[in-house]
Design a protein that fits this description.
Strand order of the largest sheet: 3-2-1-4-5
Radius of gyration: 14 Å
Structural class: alpha+beta
Distance between the termini: 13 Å
Largest sheet: 5 strands, mixed
Oligomer: single chain
Number of domains: 1
């Protein structure tokens, strides 16, 4: 990844950079912690491809469109939403350097998982 450029200052140098891919109403899908501090963002700030950033935004927008703010706990997800989120997280993992820790909810395991860096 020769063009990889991070736009955040190091806040916690002894921790790895971490990204959790998950949905929260009207927020970006990427939640950062660790080396570069805490925040949520669309993905261009950590060098993700424009296509992946657009797909992450569309994923969140699809749930926002049917989110019930009056009853958040019972708000539905679009069809295959959690599976789509898992696949987006796999794409995030593939585009980031190995030092990054990427987590996501696994619909199959019904738990948060750390995605391994694949070759």
């Amino acid at each position: 990844m020769s063009d990889f450029k991070i736009e955040f200052e190091v806040e916690n140098p002894s921790e790895p950079p971490m990204i959790d891919v998950h949905y929260e109403w009207s927020q970006y899908a990427l939640w950062m912690s660790g080396k570069y501090g805490f925040g949520t963002f669309d993905g261009h700030e950590i060098g993700l491809s424009a296509e992946l950033v657009q797909d992450l935004l569309a994923w969140g927008d699809s749930a926002d469109a049917i989110f019930n703010a009056d009853d958040p706990a019972n708000s539905p997800y679009p069809d295959n939403f959690l599976e789509d989120g898992y696949e987006l997280a796999r794409r995030v993992r593939a585009e980031l350097p190995a030092e990054w820790v990427v987590t996501v909810w696994s619909p199959a395991l019904k738990a948060d998982v750390v995605l391994p860096k694949e070759n």
